[in-house]
Design a protein that fits this description.
The complex is a heterodimer of chains A (about 180) and B (about 270). Chain A has about 180 residues and is of the alpha/beta class. Chain A is built from six helices and nine strands; from the N terminus they run ααββααβαββββαββ. In chain A, strand 3, helix 5 and strand 4 form a beta-alpha-beta unit. The N terminus of chain B is likely disordered. Chain B starts with a helix and ends with a strand. The chains are: A alpha/beta (about 180), B alpha/beta (about 270). At the A-B interface, helix 4, helix 5 and strand 4 of A face helix 6, helix 7 and strand 6 of B.
């Protein structure tokens, strides 16, 4: 579901603040740059507010943010709804004991890690990232959370690239995004 | 909520040494689990190691101006009392917030390599009240200082910086490792223990005259913060202050910031 379709007046302001950078990280990719959104305090605040309004009453106990841009949006949401924040990181960044989930990239594989003990059975989790493309990273994140017994309530992203069909890779879990980009 | 003036008077010369963890050069088992179990494990570990090596002191500091209060003279340290949170008398709300924050931070020995006692803030983030308190302490300090930009250093500066920026109405600028930012960047090289690294910022994100706050989770040698200061000054911003949750004063990072003030919540000797 996209708030864009709901025509909240704040969405337009958010969408226009996102900068598209062609041919990054490689030719043919139109990169959705959220750093320009962060330069507009009102638009950044609106972004967070839209998520908070949606999740405030849903008894979310943990917000998991995917390194690194998920660290920008996740913590403000977690703080506003009173949930703990758990960073999901690339290998070898987290200092304590971790569990790992491997996932497939276009070429090769990557790995997402979470601290043991950060999330507990029964935790109701929200997964946050700036953007969903193929859904591989979000899928790995959900797997990590479910492996420790948490319930993934929803995935939340600022931007969706619907042509890449990431939504279908989420094991039927709902996805909430603010803007779509084709 | 305390005004800034009251904060300053409370902190001059507020100095409290709290022992949270034992210190040893020998390899320690990794602490596992949640903060609740960690506190118990830490207490047990302390009991075992009391006779062995120097004690760790963790100090709660509110103001960078109080640097002299926390310096140790020639390694002589006053004996630290072991204090548990629940017995600590608080002077107003400030101390209890800092105590909660300090006790939420987990120390992981020998990460990323032997001999390093890694200050893990992820356990702080698992405590919503303590995390909120840490942000509030920064926001209270900076809300009236006309900060127009908060620069956060990848990646843990991305956790603390944006909530501060949102609360004080400033823009947020990520300072990143090379090749992460998609647009045109300016780069600043800085020294590591072995070799160099580079920090980048988007061209146009920061304007001449912007009043900047730099945020990271921890200051060690100050090399990263120093690179961030340079990047901001190169584009004409004024760096008002650097803000970190934790300082490792023995590494003298504060001295590397030149004339730029540093504000930290917690000062840790380990």
């Amino acid at each position: 579901m996209s708030a864009y379709k709901d025509k909240d007046p704040r969405i337009h302001g958010i969408k226009t603040k996102i900068r598209v950078v062609p041919n990054f990280p490689k030719p043919g990719i139109m990169f959705q740059d959220i750093t320009t959104l962060l330069l507009d305090p009102q638009a950044f605040r609106d972004t967070i507010d839209l998520f908070v309004e949606r999740y405030k009453g849903k008894n979310i106990s943990v917000v998991a943010g995917i390194e690194a841009r998920g660290f920008i949006f996740g913590p403000p949401i977690a703080l506003a709804i009173g949930a703990k924040f758990v960073p999901l990181r690339k290998p070898k960044k987290l200092p304590g004991e971790v569990i790992s989930e491997e996932y497939v990239l276009e070429y090769g594989r990557d790995c997402l890690q979470m601290h043991v003990g950060a999330v507990e059975p029964g935790d109701r989790a929200l997964v946050v990232d700036d953007l969903i493309a193929t859904g591989g990273t979000l899928c790995a994140a959900m797997n990590l959370l479910e492996r420790v017994g948490a319930q993934v309530v929803e995935c939340a992203c600022v931007i969706e690239l619907p042509d890449l069909k990431g939504r279908e890779r989420l094991h039927g879990k709902p996805l909430y995004v603010l803007v779509e980009s084709h | 909520m305390l005004s800034l003036q009251k904060l300053a008077s409370l902190s001059a010369p507020l100095s409290r040494r709290i022992e949270f963890r034992g210190r040893t050069r020998a390899p320690l088992p990794r602490y596992l689990g949640t903060p609740e179990t960690f506190a118990a494990a830490a207490a047990a570990a302390n009991d075992r190691r009391r006779s062995v090596a120097a004690r760790a002191n963790r100090q709660l500091s509110l103001s960078s101006g109080m640097a002299t209060s926390f310096e140790h003279s020639n390694g002589v340290r006053k004996g630290a009392k072991a204090v548990r949170d629940q017995h600590m008398a608080s002077e107003g709300g400030q101390d209890s917030r800092l105590t909660k924050i300090a006790s939420s931070i987990r120390v992981i020995p020998d990460f990323p390599k032997p001999g390093i006692m890694f200050q893990d803030i992820t356990t702080l983030l698992l405590n919503p009240e303590a995390f909120k308190d840490s942000i509030d302490l920064f926001v209270e300090r900076y809300r009236e200082k006309n900060i127009s930009v908060v620069a956060g250093i990848e990646a843990r500066g991305f956790i603390f910086g944006p909530p501060i920026a949102l609360a004080i109405g400033a823009k947020f600028v990520p300072m990143r490792k090379p090749n992460k930012l998609p647009g045109e960047v300016i780069s600043e090289e800085y020294s590591l223990e072995y070799g160099t690294d580079k920090m980048e910022m988007h061209v146009g994100a920061v304007q001449p005259g912007d009043r900047a706050l730099i945020v990271d989770d921890l200051i060690a040698t100050g090399g990263t913060l120093c690179a961030a200061i340079k990047l901001l000054e190169r584009v004409g911003a004024e760096v008002v202050e650097c803000a970190c949750a934790i300082e490792l004063p023995e590494l003298k990072g504060r001295d590397r910031l030149g004339d730029k003030p540093l504000f930290v919540l917690i000062s840790s000797d380990i």
